Structures are given as structure tokens and as C-alpha cells.
């Protein structure tokens, strides 16, 4: 069974849809900017998405799965204007807030996807299309009976790896120790990836501190980063 078929059967979604009302400002930018910047996963036409057409340029594209309220995404986009930043999130208010940041900083290198990033990767991204995938503080599903809902599993990592170009990176961060261990095991088991470090990666100075990281620090939980690279000989 191939990686795509395995992921198709898991029933795991990249994020959980929430019903939260947008603010007036978020609603305004949704109405004015969404037609230009965003797509819903359900409304994408069948087949591969032309990322260069979506961004209006050819550039390395990094997918962030679960962009939350978008402040970290915006900071990363400001710091790396040469990179196309694709933010995937199901939370409309979060996407609306990200568009407020896009408007504030006049960013032209950010696009937004509302929906399940796993299905997007599986059905709409060609192998080798992405320069990187970032997953910062995914839902840990802390109760043991809910661990099966966690996003980062060996089949998911295999799917992500297949969509990375040679030399592309998978960057993960979490503050849940047992999930971090499972992430490390899942990534280490994928033969097309290599760990850029001996175990955990040092926290990169360029990764913005998110509200989840701040909360973890306040509650005494260690944050662990993982940085894996797609093998160039694969």
C-alpha cells in the first residue's frame, strides 16, 4: 500500500473545524481579499494546483499546516520575501486575522487555504513541489484514547516527504513530550528523510514565538523542534 493510500484511510484531519465568529475587521478583509488570496479545499478543481499561478510568480513554496491566528506566518513572510508562504487553516477567524497582517505589511507572498491540508497534499500537490512544510504546535490530543487523531504519523510523514523537493525541509515543533517522541520516530522511519541534527533540533532564532509556545513556557513544558531534510539522492 502506497503512502497516499495509507493516508487516505486514516480518517485523520490536519485541523479540527471550529465555529468561531469573525470580528468586523476580519470579515472586512475576508470580503475584500479572500477572492485574491484564498481557496477553500472543497472548492479547488480536481487535480494538481498550479502554485506559481496562484502566487503569480515562480518561487520556493513552503506550506504551513495549522497557521492559527497567523501572526507567526506573517512574521516569517516578512522575513523571507523571496519565499511563497502557503498557510492552511480551517479556522476562518484565524485566516481573517492573517489577512489583516497581510494588509498591514503589504505582503504579496502569502496565500491561504481553508480546509484539510492533508487532503490538499494528497489530492492537489504534485510530488516534489514544496520547498518546505512547517507544523508548529499541532493539536496534541493529550488523552490516550484520542492519540489516533494526531496528525503526525508515519503515513502522513511519508506523504509530506513525497511532496518535498530534494533538499526540502519538514520542520515540526511541539510542547508535548510523548507526541515529540512519536514525531521523531515517525520522521526517522521515513527513508527519504534525514535528520538534520542528532535528535532534537536547537530552537531556530527565526521561528517566531507563538502563543502556544508562550503558554507552554509559562506552564513549564519544554518545546522540542525537529528538522528533517529530503534526501537529494532519493
UniProtKB/TrEMBL annotation:
<feature type="binding site">
    <location>
        <position position="89"/>
    </location>
    <ligand>
        <name>S-adenosyl-L-methionine</name>
    </ligand>
</feature>
<keyword id="KW-0949">S-adenosyl-L-methionine</keyword>
<comment type="similarity">
    <text>Belongs to the class I-like SAM-binding methyltransferase superfamily. TrmB family.</text>
</comment>
<dbReference type="InterPro" id="IPR003358">
    <property type="entry name" value="tRNA_(Gua-N-7)_MeTrfase_Trmb"/>
</dbReference>
<feature type="binding site">
    <location>
        <position position="175"/>
    </location>
    <ligand>
        <name>substrate</name>
    </ligand>
</feature>
<feature type="binding site">
    <location>
        <begin position="210"/>
        <end position="213"/>
    </location>
    <ligand>
        <name>substrate</name>
    </ligand>
</feature>
<protein>
    <recommendedName>
        <fullName>tRNA (guanine-N(7)-)-methyltransferase</fullName>
        <ecNumber>2.1.1.33</ecNumber>
    </recommendedName>
</protein>
<dbReference type="InterPro" id="IPR029063">
    <property type="entry name" value="SAM-dependent_MTases_sf"/>
</dbReference>
<dbReference type="GO" id="GO:0008176">
    <property type="term" value="F:tRNA (guanine(46)-N7)-methyltransferase activity"/>
</dbReference>
<feature type="binding site">
    <location>
        <position position="64"/>
    </location>
    <ligand>
        <name>S-adenosyl-L-methionine</name>
    </ligand>
</feature>
<feature type="binding site">
    <location>
        <position position="143"/>
    </location>
    <ligand>
        <name>substrate</name>
    </ligand>
</feature>
<dbReference type="Pfam" id="PF02390">
    <property type="entry name" value="Methyltransf_4"/>
</dbReference>
<feature type="binding site">
    <location>
        <position position="116"/>
    </location>
    <ligand>
        <name>S-adenosyl-L-methionine</name>
    </ligand>
</feature>
<keyword id="KW-0808">Transferase</keyword>
<comment type="pathway">
    <text>tRNA modification; N(7)-methylguanine-tRNA biosynthesis.</text>
</comment>
<keyword id="KW-0819">tRNA processing</keyword>
<comment type="function">
    <text>Catalyzes the formation of N(7)-methylguanine at position 46 (m7G46) in tRNA.</text>
</comment>
<feature type="binding site">
    <location>
        <position position="139"/>
    </location>
    <ligand>
        <name>S-adenosyl-L-methionine</name>
    </ligand>
</feature>
<dbReference type="InterPro" id="IPR055361">
    <property type="entry name" value="tRNA_methyltr_TrmB_bact"/>
</dbReference>
<keyword id="KW-0489">Methyltransferase</keyword>
Amino acid at each position: 500500500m502506497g503512502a497516499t493510500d495509507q493516508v487516505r484511510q486514516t480518517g485523520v484531519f490536519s485541523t479540527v473545524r471550529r465555529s468561531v465568529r469573525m470580528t468586523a475587521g476580519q470579515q472586512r478583509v475576508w470580503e475584500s481579499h479572500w477572492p485574491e488570496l484564498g481557496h477553500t479545499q472543497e472548492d479547488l478543481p480536481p487535480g494538481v494546483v498550479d502554485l506559481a499561478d496562484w502566487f503569480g510568480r515562480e518561487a520556493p513554496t513552503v506550506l504551513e499546516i495549522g497557521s492559527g491566528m497567523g501572526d507567526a506566518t506573517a512574521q516569517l513572510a516578512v522575513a523571507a520575501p523571496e519565499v511563497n508562504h502557503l498557510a492552511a487553516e480551517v479556522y476562518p477567524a484565524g485566516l481573517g486575522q492573517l489577512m489583516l497582517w497581510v494588509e498591514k505589511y503589504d505582503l504579496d507572498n502569502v496565500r491561504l487555504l481553508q480546509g484539510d491540508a492533508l487532503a490538499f497534499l494528497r489530492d492537489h500537490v504534485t510530488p516534489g513541489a514544496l520547498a518546505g512544510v512547517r507544523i508548529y504546535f499541532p493539536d496534541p490530543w493529550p488523552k490516550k484514547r484520542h492519540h489516533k487523531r494526531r496528525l503526525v504519523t508515519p503515513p502522513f510523514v511519508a506523504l509530506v516527504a513525497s511532496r518535498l523537493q530534494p533538499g526540502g525541509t519538514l520542520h515540526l515543533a511541539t510542547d508535548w513530550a510523548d507526541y515529540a517522541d512519536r514525531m521523531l520516530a515517525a520522521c526517522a522511519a521515513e527513508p527519504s528523510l534525514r535528520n538534520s541534527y542528532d535528535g532534537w533540533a536547537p530552537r531556530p532564532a527565526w521561528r517566531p514565538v507563538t502563543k502556544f509556545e508562550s503558554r507552554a513556557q509559562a506552564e513549564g513544558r519544554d518545546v522540542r523542534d525537529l528538522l528533517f531534510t529530503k534526501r537529494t539522492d532519493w
